[in-house]
Write a structure and sequence with these properties.
This protein is about 45% helix and about 10% strand. By secondary structure, it is mostly helical. It has 2 domains: about 1-40, no CATH class; about 50-135, no CATH class. A 3-stranded parallel sheet has the order 3-4-5, with helices on one face. The protein has a two-stranded parallel sheet with strand order 1-2. The relative contact order is 0.13.
Length: about 140
Amino acid sequence: MLDRIGADASIRAVVLARHPEQRDALAALRLPNLVVPEGAVDSRSLMYAADLVVGAGGTMTRESALLGVPTVSIFAGRPAAVDAWLEARGLLTIARPGDELAFEARPREPVPLDELRRRGAAAVGCFADVVASLS
């Protein structure tokens, strides 16, 4: 995916690496349009301004989906219930083997804060329902 992104000069990609060796591996790719911050960043503001977020299926992936940013999860395991809920509502795309991902400018404006609060409350309710069903 990074090779494809790196071949498109119209894309500015920001990769948040967790470990120094990940930053080193990304730097070794020598992709001129790849930005790898060396320290902490305000990730929610970064996601809110992004045209697309590709995540590994964790908290940041879910947050960007709830923000209304086109979001793709590349997590290869069984999707969590909240991910299935987000996908069913068109807020998250779960990449599956063989999927071709398209990169384009965000098709809509950022979601207003009131709508973001409503989505967050609904996601919490979904999670609570799933946890309650396991008891």
